[in-house]
Amino acid sequence: MRLPFTKFAGSALLCALLAAALSSPASAQRQTERSRQKVTAEKQRAGIKQRLAAIQRDIARTESEKEDAADELAESEAAISDANRALRDLAEEQDATSTRLDLLSTEGARLQQTIVTQKKQLSQLLREHYVAGNEDRIKLLLSGDNPNRINRDLQMMAYVSQAQARLLDSLRTNLAQVEANKDKVENAQLELQEIADEQRDQKARLEQEKGKRSALLQNLSTRLADQHKQADRLQRDEARMSDLVDRLSRLIREQAEAERRRQAALAAAKAKAEAEEKARALARAKAASEKAERERIARQNAKPGTKPAPVPEPEPPKVAEQPKPVETRPSTPPPQEVPLAPPLPAGAFASLKGRLTAPVSGAIAARFGQRRTEGLSWKGMFIKAPEGTDVRAVGPGRVVHADWMRGWGNVIIVDHGGEYLSTYGNASAMLKRAGDMVRAGDVIASAGSTGGNAESGLYFELRYRGKAFDPASWVKF
């Protein structure tokens, strides 16, 4: 028996689709979406880092003492902080990518099962079409059979053809989705491999830097012990911190004042434009009223049967042309500027007095105002905590400083608005960067002993308008 052309075409199409499902081109080397996002994020942070680096350089130029044993720890401790932060970020990325890979695998299995079912249905349709013989539409029309039967058979053949077409379209769509799913799975697997490689590199770098730091601490232990006994060194450290805070506070105030002036200028320009528009509307209304009155008087004075003379159109009222308002600077700072002033109400942080959560869990080793050394007292609190313990922001705000500082190690400063600042020193890792917005309770650092500290923990300060005050009545320790 010779099969009609439609059967051969359907079989060929099915074979082609099956071949497409079983074969996929090898994935070429490509850049993952994760890599592109990392490059973009680093570019955005370059401007913030540049501005704060300029502040640090300015402070360093004002110091007479440039050589301190603790300075030798700066590079190593900063590198350890970077490595710890990178490992934490990579772990979070790995979890998210693994979850995405599981979802893709589940979706891929569902699509494969759907395709298997559709292939069986298509095979059944082709088999039934083959068994029915090679009666095509032309033969049915020329058979001379009952017209009702011919019409019924033609309708049945049309339904079968439509079902086959729909099934083939659905099969093509599912096969395309399978290919897209395979690409996504391959991309996720590549990203997981990238993360694993980066984790290995970061761990190796961390171990190397820790070994380097241990050697430095061992070599400098005697010198650091002598330096801790010197009040002048502590005074320089405190002066350095105060200088940094003063500069940051001044810059925050300047930015807030500039924004206030900009908003005031915009409000004034808007009010002026509205007043001018109102004056013009009143003038137009007055002119229309005067015109209507003149027309009424002209109609009254006109003789019967004569057409009243047209009333001349009054000249439009002249409104003094005002100079265009000077364009103000956009609220978005240029790339090199650091947005230091947080978008928080002035009294938001002050309203949280007595309800702030402790930045870290641990025993308080030094309190505000306690005697520290000859002529000096603590300007904040030192809380003992094992290295790596999470340090959390006590309130919402923006990170305005995240860098190593002589005498304080890795330091993060958060601006809470209303000229309130919180300081977190001696961190082993800074998990936030300058310019990052944080919420109350967000992990921003890890406790440590950077800056030459003998004990691991956290140095914590609260300042208002640059002056340190006792956190005990503000924070629930």
Automatic annotation (TrEMBL):
Keyword Magnesium recorded: no
Top-level taxon of the source organism: Bacteria
GO molecular function: metalloendopeptidase activity
Signal peptide stretch: 1-28
Coiled-coil region(s): 45-93
Amino acid composition bias (Basic and acidic residues), ranges on this chain: 31-45, 287-298
Record domain M23ase beta-sheet core: where: 378-471
Positions of region (Disordered): 26-45, 282-346
Keywords, comma-separated and alphabetical: Coiled coil, Hydrolase, Signal
Regions of compositional bias (Pro residues) in chain numbering: 331-345
Protein name: Septal ring factor EnvC, activator of murein hydrolases AmiA and AmiB
